[in-house]
């Protein structure tokens, strides 16, 4: 018996998913998180899980972990005291950024917290010019003095970012040596290693965020590996990065900035696996929790990877899955603004006091209250009866808004759901329509506690015809950890015109990246047969400043490969912007190499299809307000755990399970597939 | 309560929910148009500095929604479509027509580099709306500013495309008047693509909800913005509030006095501006630019969340005598109108500080420092590079102002140094905050910026700004912020009225003004003063002199 374990550590719960390779058995386990030291909760969860399935830590063949440690430290300002060494004359660049103010009209708005105080930022004499030549060599003595000053100030991490380090890294390498000599105990973050790409501010921001989070992540990883080893775990644990791949703990501790989207990216990977299972490859993922929803698009089973994004106000250049987050969740509060319009979120009641129906002191209606009023969610209790709620409190809260709007309570509750649906649809448009994809060609994968409740409404709003609700929507991220390959990204930036550069020059750039990748494969002990390299190149028309990633065909780099790159670029440009600039030269900017170590993934086993009759899973009936029915209608209640492969459920119906509720309006039918996913379609 | 009793029905087709949903579709459409414009464009001013805006208008020429880019650009939009409707005529429009225009006196522009492209949207054969965008083309460099004829090519709204066909003669005429025609053409292509998106999205919306519903929702959203604006104005005590300030600029010999009288009565506001006669310099403000400035300033005070559509203007009335600097007439030059517009915002905030002091800030830097460089490349082609530099943001009643940001009427990005130096013969020597430039107070005003360039080739420079003489004022006992300056090091006479030649190796230093402080310096927390000293934001000597610490 070989068990694989996925552990997803969130703010409230730590989800553990155990999978047995031979039988395909899946066991899910939830324990309370321990936010002060998440490694305790995780170790507890793993220990409990192992005991529950009756195996030993030594027999665990894989452990993958998704974490919010980096994200939370960034949001809550709990990184370390950090110093910065940068080119003289530019120490304020970190503050100035792109010189834009944070909000166009709000005079009270502020920029995100500064991660390095001004007196800890040192401008050092050195200068490289735009063509890579050195105008002023680095003043090593001044740098050494600055390092000593930072040490005396008690910083725990030092970031280094010199101008043009992406093409001339020597000065940063000297800085690295001096840091090793003078201040080895600090965490060092060097821009040419963290983000060797042009645009100095974004590279600086990334390097600083990395430094700021470095010691936090290093401490966390150390504590967790120690505890897991004490438990008797033999395998090296892996951690997910924002790019959807996993990486060894040590590498993660070196580049924590690459893990800021660790949590949501795991959900996307899980949805990808669900897609493979169901044979549906064009998917839009919809992960709805208490305060926010994450959405992403998978075309042909692949999620676009972006090389830069703004996370909690900080620009970050790191490979990240193209995930869009919107402040709309079950706890989002509905209110009426001064113009008498109904609005929902982004303010959230959170888990405490939570929705009005919890009776813990919040009297403003939330999205959950709207569902309770309409009885789409159980009006008496949540979590399979573990939590009592009071519908009359929801009604009272919604009624206050209804009176102001001059609308009925039910109509208002339904309106709250319509508005929150519109907010989520807007997020999906960003990742689909705005990128040239029509959502109607995609299936919606709904997960997170609240996803399956709102999925059909959302799909209808976007004209999507099919919805997939995975077997365990509430803990899908933990499952995703069992589906993830090892992955890391290498890049180099050099401007070349496609019609002027020799293929050999590009080949030699990739050869350099491949050397780095080989070293990484060795470090991670990835078997030669499991090694995969993928090349892409960021292109634009010479003169533009935003690039489009284009795949480079396999094999040697030739003029034929260039032709295919140009073709791919033009196709993508047309899809994104609706035109191509005939005759304009194409420029190559950044060369990227993705190194993957293929992990043997949990293979889910298909079950035997049984009959269509789902009546054995019926648990009762309830009046549920459905817009399609124009009012309350009697819906059949089902217990998800009792549904069998092949069963068919027709709406109006409510399918309950411990970690979520699926709402099926009249006119919709859910079919249980061989993997116990629900496939929902219009009748 | 029984469920039957809860189910009070209202059969209105256009409930507030539908309106909200359609409003959110408008907002995502204009955002998407803006992204497409930036990403597909070529000139640094658009692709990196994002000096462009997008909007949707209804068939009558009222704005449905503007993207949150540059408040100043509203001025270029609000006059454009009414002009087309009046002078070209709705009956002559056909699908695929695209109008181009920029003129301040014929077509509602605010200065010539902001070139507008507008495309009518037809659905089921009927004109239902407009997609419109403007981009600041960094061209028309090194021109005179005695009157508008010197400032660049004047283009009244004319068709650049007729039923989808490019009017090549019009394009040729335009490009021949530009110094960097290749960039202009590529940027126009990006502007076209942005409007095409707007057209497609709005038609999709009409297919889904019906044209009537979409247009009715548009009207309701305007009413909604109006209601919010009125509710906000009503919360300001009735009364008359006056404020005046002195305006200076690199091209003026003396300071000019601007003043405003604001009368708040119930839920309406009237603003009357007094300024000297228009000047023979590129500083004059046309009425639509004044309007967009007032709408911005009032919105920040009244309710920053009001939707950016035509409804918000309804309770606001603006007067200024024609032919004065703040409401100029043909042929006044207008290129640098934004400096005066920034001061109009200050005037409004200064006047309203008397009655709602917590909703305004001390004076922001009151300027937009502009630097424009141009020259000839080795191959004989011309290059033009323009940038604007932020400064101090005024202190708030409860916290310090922001350091080194763009304020009020603009919000463009800087150009990354690694992009600037690659594309132009310029090297940046320093880019930093100006120590001591934030006005002292219980809360400190924001700091100005210093940007220092070295010319790597001979080139022509022109610079512009304000607050070289009169400092950004403080509020509630707060002190004034630092002044701005332009200097060619070692050659102070090189620039005359802000323009001149610089040569390879010359160093140009631009310092932008800081901002005013809020509250008495004596009330500043000693720890905050200590932090400012430690961080070098103020000197120990100043700390002693001003704060007694």
The beta-strand count of chain B equals 19
* Weakly predicted, low-confidence segments of chain B: 4-12
Give a count of the beta strands of chain A, DSSP E runs of length 2 or more.
37
**Overall domain count of chain A:** 5
Give a short account of the largest sheet of chain B: 7 strands, antiparallel
Coarse structural class of chain A:
alpha+beta
CATH class of the largest domain in chain A: Alpha Beta
Q: Mean pLDDT of chain B, rounded to whole units?
A: 94
Q: Rounded to an integer, what's the Rg of chain B over CA atoms? A: 24 Å
Class by alpha and beta content of chain B: alpha+beta
CATH architecture of the largest domain in chain B: 2-Layer Sandwich
Give the helix level of chain A as a range of percent.
25-40%
CATH class of the largest domain in chain B: Alpha Beta
| Total of domains of chain B | 2
Total of DSSP H or I helical runs spanning 4+ residues of chain A: 16
Account of the protein in words:
Chain A: Keywords: Hydrolase. Chain A: This is N-methylhydantoinase A. Chain A: Residues 502-675 form the Acetophenone carboxylase-like C-terminal domain. The complex is a heterodimer of chains A (683) and B (549). With 683 residues, chain A is of the alpha+beta class. Chain A contains 16 helices and 37 strands. In chain A, a hairpin with a 2-residue loop joins β34 and β35. In chain A, α1 (38-53) packs across α7 (200-230), α10 (367-373) packs across α11 (391-405) and α10 (367-373) packs across α12 (409-431). The longest helix of chain A has 31 residues, at 200-230. The mean pLDDT of chain A is 91. Chain B is an alpha+beta fold and 549 residues long. Chain B folds into two domains: 16-226, 2-Layer Sandwich (Beta-Lactamase); 361-549, no CATH class. Helix content of chain B is 30%, strand content 23%. Chain B has helices at residues 3-6, 16-40, 44-47, 74-78, 80-89, 168-176, 181-209, 211-234, 287-302, 337-352, 417-423, 526-534, 540-547; strands spanning 52-58, 63-66, 98-101, 114-123, 126-136, 158-162, 165-166, 239-247, 256-265, 268-274, 316-320, 369-376, 382-389, 426-433, 449-455, 459-464, 485-488, 499-502, 507-511. In chain B, β9 and β10 (268-274) form a beta hairpin. In chain B, α2 packs antiparallel against α7, α2 (16-40) crosses α8 (211-234) and α9 runs parallel beside α10. Chain B is globular and about 75 Å long. The model of chain B is unreliable at 4-12 (pLDDT under 50). The chains are: A alpha+beta (683), B alpha+beta (549). At the A-B interface, α3, α7 and α12 of A face α2, α7, α8, α9 and α11 of B.
């Amino acid at each position: 018996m070989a068990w694989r374990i996925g552990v997803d550590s969130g703010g409230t719960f730590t989800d553990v998913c155990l999978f047995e390779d031979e039988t395909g058995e899946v066991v899910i386990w939830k324990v309370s998180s321990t936010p002060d030291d998440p490694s305790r909760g995780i170790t507890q969860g793993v220990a409990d899980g192992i005991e529950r399935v009756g195996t030993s830590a030594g027999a665990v063949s894989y452990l993958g972990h998704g974490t919010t440690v980096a994200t939370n430290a960034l949001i809550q300002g709990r990184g370390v005291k950090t110093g910065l060494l940068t080119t003289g004359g530019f120490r304020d660049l970190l503050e100035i950024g792109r010189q834009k103010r944070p909000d166009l009209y709000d005079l009270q708005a502020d920029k995100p917290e500064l991660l390095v105080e001004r007196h800890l930022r040192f401008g050092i004499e050195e200068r490289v010019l735009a063509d890579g030549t050195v105008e002023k060599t680095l003043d090593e003595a001044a740098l050494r003095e600055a390092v000593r000053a930072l040490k005396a100030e008690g910083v725990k991490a030092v970031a280094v970012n010199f101008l043009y380090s992406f093409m001339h890294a020597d000065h940063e390498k000297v800085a690295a040596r001096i840091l090793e000599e003078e201040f080895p105990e600090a965490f060092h973050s060097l821009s040419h290693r963290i983000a060797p790409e042009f645009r100095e501010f974004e590279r600086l921001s990334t390097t600083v965020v990395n430094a700021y989070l470095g010691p936090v992540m290093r401490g966390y990883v150390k504590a967790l590996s120690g505890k897991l080893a004490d438990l008797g775990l033999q395998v090296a644990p892996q951690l997910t990065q924002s790019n959807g791949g996993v990486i060894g703990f040590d590498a993660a501790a070196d580049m924590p900035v690459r893990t800021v989207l660790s949590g949501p990216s795991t959900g996307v990977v899980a949805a990808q696996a669900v897609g493979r299972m169901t044979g549906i490859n064009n998917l839009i993922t919809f992960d709805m929790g208490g305060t926010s929803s994450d959405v992403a698009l998978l075309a042909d089973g692949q999620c676009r990877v972006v090389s830069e994004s703004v996370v909690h106000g900080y620009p970050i250049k790191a490979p990240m899955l193209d995930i869009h987050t919107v402040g709309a969740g079950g706890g989002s509060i509905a209110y009426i603004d001064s113009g008498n319009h109904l609005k929902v979120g982004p303010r959230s009641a959170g888990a405490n006091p939570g929705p009005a129906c919890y009776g813990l002191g919040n009297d403003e209606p939330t999205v959950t209250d709207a569902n309770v009023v309409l009885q789409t969610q159980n009006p008496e209790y949540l979590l399979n009866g573990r939590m009592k709620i009071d519908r009359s409190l929801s009604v009272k809260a919604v009624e206050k808004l209804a009176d102001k709007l001059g609308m009925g309570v039910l109509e208002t509750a339904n309106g709250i759901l319509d508005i929150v649906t519109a907010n989520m649809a807007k997020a999906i448009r960003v990742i689909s329509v705005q990128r040239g994809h029509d959502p109607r060609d995609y299936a919606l994968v709904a997960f997170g506690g609240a996803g399956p409740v709102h999925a059909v409404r959302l799909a209808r709003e976007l004209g999507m015809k099919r919805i997939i609700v995975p077997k365990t929507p509430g803990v899908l991220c933990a499952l995703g950890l069992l589906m993830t390959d090892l992955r890391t990204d290498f890049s180099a930036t050099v401007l070349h015109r496609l019609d002027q550069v020799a293929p050999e020059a590009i080949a030699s750039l990739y050869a350099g990246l491949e050397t780095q990748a080989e070293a990484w494969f060795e470090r991670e002990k990835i078997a030669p047969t499991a090694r995969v390299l993928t090349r892409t190149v960021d292109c634009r028309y010479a003169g533009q400043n935003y690039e489009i990633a284009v795949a480079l065909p396999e094999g040697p780099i030739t003029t034929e490969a260039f032709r295919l790159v140009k073709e791919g670029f033009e196709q993508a440009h047309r899809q994104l912007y609706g035109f191509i600039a005939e005759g304009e030269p194409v420029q190559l900017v950044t060369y990227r190499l993705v190194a993957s170590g293929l992990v043997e993934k949990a293979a889910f086993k298909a079950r035997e299809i049984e009959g269509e009759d789902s009546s054995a899973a019926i648990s009762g009936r309830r009046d549920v307000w459905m817009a399609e029915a124009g009012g309350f209608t009697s819906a059949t209640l089902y217990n998800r755990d009792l549904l069998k492969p092949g069963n068919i459920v027709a709406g109006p119906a409510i399918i309950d399970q411990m970690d979520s509720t699926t709402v099926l309006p009249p006119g919709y039918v859910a079919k249980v597939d061989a993997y116990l996913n629900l496939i929902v379609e219009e009748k | 309560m029984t469920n039957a009793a809860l189910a009070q029905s209202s059969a209105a087709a256009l409930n507030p929910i539908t309106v909200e949903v359609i409003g959110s579709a408008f907002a995502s459409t204009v955002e998407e148009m803006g992204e497409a414009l930036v990403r597909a464009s070529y000139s640094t001013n658009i692709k990196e500095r994002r000096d462009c805006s997008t909007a949707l208008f209804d068939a009558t020429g009222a704005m449905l929604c503007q993207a949150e880019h540059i408040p100043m650009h509203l001025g270029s939009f609000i006059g454009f479509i009414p002009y087309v409707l009046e002078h070209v005529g709705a009956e002559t429009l056909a699908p695929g027509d695209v109008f181009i225009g920029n003129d301040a006196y014929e077509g509602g522009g605010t200065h010539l580099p902001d070139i507008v492209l507008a495309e009518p949207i037809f659905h089921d054969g009927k004109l239902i709306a407009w997609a419109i965008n403007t981009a600041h083309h960094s061209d028309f460099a090194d021109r005179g500013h005695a009157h508008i004829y010197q400032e660049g090519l004047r283009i009244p709204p004319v068709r650049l495309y007729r039923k989808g066909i490019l009017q090549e003669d019009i394009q040729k005429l335009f490009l021949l008047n530009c110094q960097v025609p290749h960039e202009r053409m590529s940027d126009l292509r990006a502007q076209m693509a942005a409007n095409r998106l707007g057209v497609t999205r709005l038609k999709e919306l009409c297919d889904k909800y019906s044209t009537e519903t979409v247009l009715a929702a548009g009207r309701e959203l305007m009413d909604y913005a109006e209601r919010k604006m009125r509710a906000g104005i009503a919360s300001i005590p009735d009364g008359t509030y006056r404020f005046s300030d002195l305006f200076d600029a690199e091209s003026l010999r003396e300071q000019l006095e601007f003043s405003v009288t604001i009368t708040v009565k119930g839920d309406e506001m009237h603003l009357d501006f007094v300024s000297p006669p228009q000047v023979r310099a590129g500083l004059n403000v046309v009425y639509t630019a004044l309007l967009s400035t007032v709408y911005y300033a009032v919105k920040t005070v009244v309710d920053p969340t009001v939707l950016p559509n035509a409804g918000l203007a309804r309770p606001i009335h603006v007067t200024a005598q024609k032919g004065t600097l703040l409401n100029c007439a043909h042929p006044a030059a207008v290129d640098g109108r934004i400096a005066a517009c920034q001061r109009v915002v200050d005037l409004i905030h200064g006047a309203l500080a008397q009655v709602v002091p917590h909703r305004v800030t001390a004076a922001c830097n009151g300027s937009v420092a502009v630097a424009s460089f141009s020259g000839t490349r080795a191959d004989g082609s011309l290059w033009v590079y323009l940038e604007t530099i932020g400064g101090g943001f005024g202190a708030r009643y409860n916290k310090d102002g922001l350091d080194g940001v763009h304020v009020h009427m603009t919000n463009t990005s800087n150009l990354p140094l690694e992009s600037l130096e690659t594309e132009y013969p310029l090297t940046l020597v320093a880019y930093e905050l100006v120590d001591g430039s934030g006005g002292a107070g219980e809360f400190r005003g924001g700091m100005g910026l210093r940007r220092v360039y070295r010319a790597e080739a001979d080139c022509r420079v022109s610079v512009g700004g304000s607050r070289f003489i009169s400092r950004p004022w403080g509020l509630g006992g707060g002190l004034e912020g630092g002044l701005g300056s332009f200097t060619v090091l070692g050659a102070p006479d090189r620039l005359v009225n802000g323009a001149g030649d610089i040569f390879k190796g010359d160093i140009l230093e631009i310092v932008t003004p800081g901002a005013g402080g809020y509250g008495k310096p004596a009330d500043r927390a000693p720890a905050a003063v200590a932090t400012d000293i430690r961080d070098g934001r103020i000197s120990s000597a100043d700390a002693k002199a001003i704060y007694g610490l």
